[in-house]
């Protein structure tokens, strides 16, 4: 439980102790061999479709979708024409990794931050086989680090290595960036439509609200991002954030504020109140992500994250089309 007793100083993934190339290669083999048996289809995007890029016009034939009529060409030629779209074979994926101090927590040998990087690696390795471009943003409290989108295995290696080697953010580090502002910057700077992956614990300093009808501060930004993009939110959770252990008196401290309080965990009533509040907090996050139209996967440091992602992808393929319908009156 070293990550509880002191702030981590480096990556906690066992692979990070190896040379970066060897570590990432082994990570790729672990993911690809275990995921290939679960996934089907040629397109690695989780929401395959006809695409959004327009193709050449062609003559109308019975059975064509009349909504694709090209009236300009039809008027010039006096023959009905339709304009097809080109299927999206190259997906542009951008991952936003939250590395604020609360992500340094971990009691199962891995921090939430490194578990989030493992999730990004999973999605990246699935996409790079089809030539998808993958880029990343690392959100620190004081700045945003941008890693340009590139395709290919070595580009993905470079991105993951950069994320693993990113310096640890010290507790109570202050800055202008919150999750809401990070999502807004992702939406503003990456204009090409594609897949967006948000990796965070979705906890905001000072937010003690438990009512699911009260939206978190980041929900509005996430809604705007989901209008033009397919969004998947990876919520990373440590076991001791949702299940308080019976270990006597302990100090509970917020790494992003000055809040600190001693709690007697041997008191069953105190543990019950804590666990109930934590469950309500996570339910509020789940409801907010659903309202925003984003896919939601929860990963825990004490569970097999590869299996969790595989189950999510299988279920997500069936519901993605309905989940990502744009708000009424908005053309996607």
SSE layout:
Elements lengths: L1 H4 L14 H16 L17 E7 L11 H7 L3 E6 L5 E7 L13 H17 L4 E7 L4 E7 L2 H12 L14 H11 L5 E6 L18 H10 L1 E8 L1 H4 L6 E5 L6 E5 L3 H24 L3 E6 L4 H19 L9
Parallel strand pairs: 3-4, 3-6, 6-7, 7-10
Antiparallel strand pairs: 1-2, 4-5, 8-9
Q: How confident overall, as mean pLDDT?
A: 80
The CA-CA distance between the termini, in Å, is: 47 Å
**Total helix count?**
10
What is the 3D form?
Answer: elongated
How many strands in all?
Answer: 10
What does this structure look like?
There is one protein chain. α7 links the parallel β6 (195-200) and β7. The termini are far apart. This protein is 37% helix and 19% strand. The longest helix has 24 residues, at 268-291. Strands 5-4-3-6-7-10 form a six-stranded mixed β-sheet, sandwiched between helices. With 332 residues, the protein is an alpha/beta fold.
Pick out its properties.
10 strands; two-stranded antiparallel sheet; 332 residues; alpha/beta
Write a brief caption for the model.
This protein has helices at 2-5, 20-35, 71-77, 112-128, 153-164, 179-189, 219-228, 239-242, 268-291, 305-323; strands at residues 53-59, 81-86, 92-98, 133-139, 144-150, 195-200, 230-237, 249-253, 260-264, 295-300. It is of the alpha/beta class.
